[in-house]
Amino acid sequence: MNSLRQFKSANAPISPATAWYLSDLGEFRGKQELYTRQSPQRLKALREHALIESAVSSNRIEGVTVEPSRVRDVLVSPKPLFRDRDEEEVRGYRDALTWIHQDAQRIPISNETIQRLHAMTRGQIWDSGLYKEKDGDIIERYPDGSERVRFRTVPAKQTPAAMDQLIADWQACLEERWVPPLIALAAFNLDFLCIHPFRDGNGRVSRLLWLLQSYQLGLEVGRYISLERLVEQNKERYYETLEQSSQGWHEGKHDPWPYINYVLSILKTAYREFSDRVGEVKAPRGAKRDQVLSGIERVAARTGEFTISELEQTCPGVSRDMVRRVLREQQAAGAVECKGRGPGATWTTKRGNYP
Known about the structure:
This protein is mainly α. The chain has 15 helices and five strands. The protein has helices spanning 3-9, 16-38, 44-61, 71-75, 85-103, 111-122, 159-176, 181-195, 202-216, 227-233, 235-246, 257-278, 287-302, 308-314, 320-332; strands spanning 138-141, 147-151, 305-306, 336-339, 346-349.
């Protein structure tokens, strides 16, 4: 029994925490048009940055990576030459994002859309765009070689019917207002992950659907702030709440609220970051420098020290020359300090300059 159907059959009470998220998101959404109308040209840098971050982060969550030095060639070049399948899949995700950014209001939530998104993100493998043909549980493997079944997904034979039901329930939920639309969005995402309709690539498709449905509900923050990056930064909580909310899902005895609140918290964090950054966005001419400075803040907040390679991963699409230039500038200003020499040198931030 999926989460959306659970809301139809019973009056599910909304917790104070969920109501708080909905209130804050409603307030942010009300300010959204003011932000975008206030400085539309200045937001171009944020859009370009978010597009690259989203493609890199969403794939990296699933272990699909691109060398930092290759990010620009793979994601920005009009006709990239791929070195491996990982690069092809990251570029495919970027193309799927572009489709959503451009046509969200005209893209229906349907089996055809979901399968097309999967095909775009999985390249030309044999089952791209096809629902799974064999049963496949979600297995967690440990360093000592042991493993456990984290979740038993919907059997392959039942998957098409389960997806049909999920899509129908989504439409009915919006039309009949079983719950507020944002709760429905998060519940749909949970149900999609529990059905697990594809052999592989379900997580990436779920995040694309999250973005698409957000746009259709009027939440545009994912255009400027990468939701995928925020999920990656809170990956442990993502898996924790997903496991909590999936237990008992098949019997309709699960608790969807931990995962629903997680989705709402990511959206709120994105809006808070957007509101903090929209007034700081410089003209596009200085966008790369600002991206590196923002990257230094993020890596400094995590560990207090970093390497150039780690900073590059935080600043996709920025050349190594630009990263080095900004570091030299910050070093001269006394904001950062270099320990060691060569590519493996460690950089640290001076107290009071970064978090």
